[in-house]
Amino acid sequence: MIKIGIVGGTGYTGVELLRLLATHPQAQIVAITSRKEDGLPVADMYPSLRGHLDIAFSSPDKAKLTECDVVFFATPHGVAMAQAPELLAAGVKVIDLAADFRLKDVNQFEKWYGIPHSCTDVLTEAVYGLPELNRAAIKTARVIGNPGCYPTTMQLGFYPLLKAGVIDAGNLIADCKSGVSGAGRKAEISLLFTEAGDNFKAYSVSGHRHHPETVEQLQYVTDDKIGLLFTPHLVPMIRGMHSTLYGRLNREISNEHLQALFVDAYKDEPFVDVMPFASHPETRSTRASNMLRLALHRPNNGNTVIVLVVQDNLVKGSAGQAVQCMNIMFDLDERTGLQHVAVLP
Amino acid sequence: MIKIGIVGGTGYTGVELLRLLATHPQAQIVAITSRKEDGLPVADMYPSLRGHLDIAFSSPDKAKLTECDVVFFATPHGVAMAQAPELLAAGVKVIDLAADFRLKDVNQFEKWYGIPHSCTDVLTEAVYGLPELNRAAIKTARVIGNPGCYPTTMQLGFYPLLKAGVIDAGNLIADCKSGVSGAGRKAEISLLFTEAGDNFKAYSVSGHRHHPETVEQLQYVTDDKIGLLFTPHLVPMIRGMHSTLYGRLNREISNEHLQALFVDAYKDEPFVDVMPFASHPETRSTRASNMLRLALHRPNNGNTVIVLVVQDNLVKGSAGQAVQCMNIMFDLDERTGLQHVAVLP
Amino acid sequence: MIKIGIVGGTGYTGVELLRLLATHPQAQIVAITSRKEDGLPVADMYPSLRGHLDIAFSSPDKAKLTECDVVFFATPHGVAMAQAPELLAAGVKVIDLAADFRLKDVNQFEKWYGIPHSCTDVLTEAVYGLPELNRAAIKTARVIGNPGCYPTTMQLGFYPLLKAGVIDAGNLIADCKSGVSGAGRKAEISLLFTEAGDNFKAYSVSGHRHHPETVEQLQYVTDDKIGLLFTPHLVPMIRGMHSTLYGRLNREISNEHLQALFVDAYKDEPFVDVMPFASHPETRSTRASNMLRLALHRPNNGNTVIVLVVQDNLVKGSAGQAVQCMNIMFDLDERTGLQHVAVLP
Amino acid sequence: MIKIGIVGGTGYTGVELLRLLATHPQAQIVAITSRKEDGLPVADMYPSLRGHLDIAFSSPDKAKLTECDVVFFATPHGVAMAQAPELLAAGVKVIDLAADFRLKDVNQFEKWYGIPHSCTDVLTEAVYGLPELNRAAIKTARVIGNPGCYPTTMQLGFYPLLKAGVIDAGNLIADCKSGVSGAGRKAEISLLFTEAGDNFKAYSVSGHRHHPETVEQLQYVTDDKIGLLFTPHLVPMIRGMHSTLYGRLNREISNEHLQALFVDAYKDEPFVDVMPFASHPETRSTRASNMLRLALHRPNNGNTVIVLVVQDNLVKGSAGQAVQCMNIMFDLDERTGLQHVAVLP
Lengths: 345, 345, 345, 345
Hints:
In chain A, β2 (27-33), α2 (42-45) and β3 form a beta-alpha-beta unit. In chain A, 58% of the residues are buried. Chain A has a seven-stranded parallel β-sheet, sandwiched between helices. In chain A, strands 9-10-8-11-14-13-12 form a seven-stranded mixed β-sheet. The first copy, chain A, is built from eleven helices and 14 strands. Chain A is α/β, with parallel strands linked by helices. Chain A folds into two domains: 2-125, 3-Layer(aba) Sandwich (Rossmann fold), CATH 3.40.50.720; 149-312, Dihydrodipicolinate Reductase, domain 2 (2-Layer Sandwich), CATH 3.30.360.10. Chain A has helices at 12-22, 42-45, 79-89, 106-113, 120-125, 131-139, 149-164, 193-196, 210-219, 255-266, 315-329; strands at residues 2-7, 27-33, 57-58, 70-73, 93-96, 127-128, 143-145, 172-178, 201-202, 228-234, 241-248, 272-274, 292-297, 304-311.
């Protein structure tokens, strides 16, 4: 059994980690920290866990995190980097679901997150936790920067096209739509049912933190300079993310060939489902599961290829991907504990 | 034109007042106060008002409320009673959408709202603003305590039955369901889209502030002691309230007679719609309108009569009712500015 | 492995059965019938099953249902009774998720479902599949009438009170609220997103098919005549059911005693969670899980006890309960394949 | 008073017309036809109209449409063209909310709608009813083809840019999102609450009927060949449409200049609201109102301009626009009966 600690289990990525780990056959949750909720049984905050998890929040000073095999950080940005060095020194692996170890470019990190990076040495060795593109490095990593939700869809959607060099890297458009849980469990007016419900809007169109992360990673795939336009929108649904990706083809290529690029790229991937050409994947086909689904379109056989990508932002877009990384790091079958069928309807 | 001031225009009852008054042909909004948003154009906070309302929030000290004909308080409990005496002294009428002037029983007020009542003399003259039961008093009132949303449905639903003495006053059950806007525009976790959406629950089953208000008012209708069980629930919808009322018949009575009690009681009411016996009114049939609709049922012709009551909690349940009171107080046709057709779908 | 056939896998109870059985360690789905979809891979209709279920619908004449160990009917009323005799003769067990084997009173069946009952002998031996009240009979049953969704909540909520004789059996009120999936996957105007969304209404208040079923079963618990008022409502959510039950206490009893009645009744039940007194269970705390949760209230310590009951109408209210019955019938641990943590948020 | 007939008042564009016309000071609804609902009071189908509209559906043969001043067709495609000639001969004006008179190119019409066009002479004189671009022609028109919902947003969003020639006409992308009411009031599985709720997907990505209409109209604005990629998506909300438009700038231009193009284009328009640069308009800011709002963005001051456009698909996207056309045709103030403040929240 893997001994697991969770820092910050009160938010949505935290409770989703708990949902997944509570039934993971190799996982033993030994500590969940929350300064504010010290002593409160986790199942009192989240009744969905009653009968599944018999543990209470403990304040960080009491939790013996250094006795864990791995510690997940489901915290605001900045927490993981403060605690990672001590854990690593004690031989504990670290998986951060926030952004502390996502961006290799420290300037970009500090620009977008507004705080100085306190352990750039750890950052140097940290591995970006996107298994499909980075599996080997994850296997031996001590520190994982778990990808953002939007970047997961953009990378897996553009990757086969950029790898094959068939689209113009400098002219990518990602029109992305996220359910409200992507914003976290925060008491903000704009996230109220009465504000976000029966409503649709774009936000942060002039700039969003997931842009530099995506560009940095996509740049590893191609020598051409990445130019990405990323437009996030808020959808009145709880979970789910849909990215509509536009790439300009730079050569003659058949639709069969395009489809083959994706089928080949992901044929051994347990959590990427390449649907038939011209399908319309629905977000709910991934609800509460770790599967990401995608499909290609090419209107009028023109020079633009459209990739439709869906996932559950809290699973493949966050907690599920983190557990997938853990499975790889601890030499388990990558699918362990992640075999949920999507909940539909 | 009636010169109108609004204290606290940033919440949902406030913006609903603005929606209604912006197109009211006799209303001129001359001041909207908000300490926090001083100087901010109202339409910047609520883009729905762009082009309809060209006024900015002003801090209370700058707003010349004493020059108004009437001031609405769309504020938390306790604000209206602090300012009412000065306004009344200046000849300004007051309509409070909160609870300061609803409960005649000061002990009940202080028990349920947790603050002492600071102007019990004003409370004494205040009129409970439910036009259907209290029109004459409203006409000459200087101060209105505008009813709560739940109490409006419970009173109008039980009134004809209690008046006629055909149900047991001591054994009333009101199983009520409200859209989320009833909780106001507050940054609270439990009101998030991700918490209240795709979910249903009861709340405050052991006691809710609208209980004493309803009991106090219903007691005016009958000499028998009112006994009321009131169970509020939260519905994943933005606007709308549905009350399912159960009364025990205490005598032989035909369904036609029951229906006639309601038809007679409300035949001249512009904002109460008695639907055919055994109808199922929908909340959306009142969305954004000031209409309250109700229908009677009597399963198996047994000894329980069920009254289904629907309204828009922000209109007939709050701001619309307040404007209806204003119309009465200023000798306008009661329907002025309140003739909206419900928005369906 | 249990060889399983499913008749009618295209509706919501069907796809929910598939979700649960696809990951059930002892289940092998060998046939799914659909006359209309013959040959269509199940995962083409429900992409959520892609990668989990590699089987196609087959027309009833081709499906070798008599070679199964058990056949589930997720069909409209009337189908199971037409096919059950042949299956039973072949030694196949039958679990009907519709109403063919729920009502022992054939007159009531024919009155409410409008069709004659074609195999009353099978009906005589059929067992009502509510494990908490009927486990021993289920263990040896050949035919199960799986309970309706509403009746499950009403029975489990009223049972401990009626058993102990502390409430008036003739005066039960059940004010129930269901998510839209309870109506099934039918192309009806009233179930459209644009009709059922942002809306709330009661329906079938004058009479609903789940009333006679509930009364028949509750009558087994007490010698007093059951009188039940049942008011169903439609909630704008996909899954979830909340029943608010009112019982009139007929004797002095402490709240501790009331709570103990429930704790004792369900202390060994894996899928009934008695929450602390005066809790407010949320439907989402059971979403996609087989757990039913309930809590007691007693406003003002008066003579009415309120039981709040929540479940996922498609799981404990239907497909999950059916699988629970199967586990019992095949001597498996009752929890096998049903250990999902509720999906929250 | 304008005497008005409505053909096909049972769908969503029909009931929205009724909502708007019921309070329009110059409108008198004299006939509503429905073969199926002959004799049924309109308010029995739509209780929201109780007290506002006292008229029944009548079968087409009984309705004296030729005595009207104007007849609106809120029908499936093909109905208006069958009846228009007779009405025009009788001196009645025709406004078709469907597609019969939208496309000047008959081949395109027949390709996309799958039926032959039966009155191409009427089509020749028909006027495309987008007041902002076509006001003079509407004023004298006898027949109006009322624009589709998506095309309204795409045209008003791209127009100032194409007119000024600052973007590449051959490389337009419109990523559009619509509430479910855009699909009409049809009993289809995919539109159920349980299918469309808590879900997001693209549809018709390979081709949609609103594409040729938009291209045809945009081509009138520029000599350059229009190339448009149009990707529609379905949003789990009832009303509302959000189009995210991408245009490639073909010259140096300041953001102030871009903004000025829009401000100038629409400065006299009562129903187009150009919001401040870099705003994020919300669909709900137009809910139930005839206002269309838009805002410009230019990420990183790069060579792509993004236009965010929102409207209520049933109002400015359909029935409201039709009434706006009627006002113009009958020399009324264009805003008559269309001054509703958007319903928020």
